[in-house]
Amino acid sequence: MSIAENIAALRERMDAAARAAGRDPAEILLCAATKMNDAQRVKEAVAAGVDCCGENRVQELTQKQPLGAYEGKPVHFIGHLQTNKVNKVVGKVDLIQSVDRMELLEAVNRTALRLGLKQDILLEINIGAEPQKGGFSPEEALALAPRMGEFPGIRLRGLMAIPPISQKKGDNCKYFAKMRNLYIDIAGKKYDNVSMVCLSMGMSDDFEDAIAQGSTMVRVGTAIFGARPYQLTIDK
Ligand SMILES: *Cc1c(COP(=O)(O)O)cnc(C)c1O
Fold this sequence. Notes:
Layout: H1 3-20, E1 29-33, H2 39-47, E2 52-55, H3 58-64, E3 75-77, E4 95-99, H4 102-115, E5 119-125, H5 138-144, E6 154-161, H6 173-187, E7 194-200, H7 207-212, E8 217-220, H8 222-225
Parallel strand pairs: 1-2, 1-8, 2-3, 3-4, 4-5, 5-6, 6-7
């Protein structure tokens, strides 16, 4: 199957999942997780109508962006971001989905201020409370959201999560439900620099469950591009 055929099939499954949950399919955006796919393949996905692209590694972003890989669609950063590479990402992407620690949030804010811009971000939540994984706890996120006014270089747009690796279908529903509740909690308040529009959760194996639980953006790699030669470690 071609990338375009994969995307068409994926859209049908996303739409069916939305309708089954009584949701409007138009509420749910498709972010192509483009890691390990070259600029040409990314262009194919863009042409086939994904809503945005998500890159994991700074090096891939800086290689593919000058080749026009994402042209016409927003590009997001979705991987672990080292503080010393923040200047290669801030202002270059429409959204940093993976702000997973205070040190990174502060570095993004500083860099954005220096560049005179506002960087849209999501807070990454360690929703399974996995010790080996980065991300804010739900409690930390609840405490941080009211303080976003202290970071004028940043605008908080929502939340992202990668739940624990699941053993069987349906396992992640409880984590997705927790994410939705946290998202609604924060969205219901009026905080400076906070405008919640994106709940990013769901990947190739579990996006239907994520949509059932309120996801507004699924990040899909394998179901679009096929299996990767090896599994990148996406935890950190
Ligand atoms: C690779 C990746 C995805 C997509 O994973 P698939 O299982 O291939 O759909 C989603 N989110 C992040 C952060 C990723 O790194």
